[in-house]
């Protein structure tokens, strides 16, 4: 959620809570926040009250009802809640356009659950392994951080041997379907200027979908690599990709990703990236199922 509002205020202090009326669209809900709460806590409260109503691809301004003016004003810089008040969240008219531009310095690759036990069950698994390996080779050439997860590896095995995880920033076991684990969030926070996540792996309608939705909820742009993600069922895969595309997630291909990242024939790594693309797997029919 990107907010066009005042700078965050200081944290809560002073003890106790203060009643606040939270207004959004036609809704108004009384609640309370700790005495001394600032901008960040107000935003958290708006999300807890109206999260299912807020379009994450809009910009908003937070406003405070000012008695002296008898109308709402933009939240003053450094504002702290010290007394009963009324605030509202106002969507701006300009909608953010997701352009999908990629640069290596602001991109991280997420490789999701490409594990041995999935091999016999996932449609076109051999092809997505091949494409996934090509993407990871491209990430190493371009200096792009890679985060890898493995779903319950004790029972489902490790990442398949064909995929070389050399240089990966993180390789984490998980039981949660989404890749957005505390360790992953901490790793992203350590990488300056991250804007875009390139996401691939299995299964499209479960771990990929839940990861993508969590990431856009945190204001990141998500690119799902259609020729490097699959499910046991092509129907599940197809409807997941359609749903995700409608939410503003970019569904694309490995070749488009790699060439967008180099952007220019004169890029010093262009020839090596071109060689990766030339070694493409045979057409499997996977993309015809998008």
UniProtKB/TrEMBL annotation:
CDD domains: YcaC_related. Signal peptide: none annotated. It comes from the Eukaryota. InterPro entries: Isochorismatase-like_dom (IPR000868), Isochorismatase-like_sf (IPR036380), Isochorismatase_domain (IPR050993). Pfam families: Isochorismatase. Residues 107-255 form the Isochorismatase-like domain. Belongs to the isochorismatase family. This is Isochorismatase domain-containing protein 1.
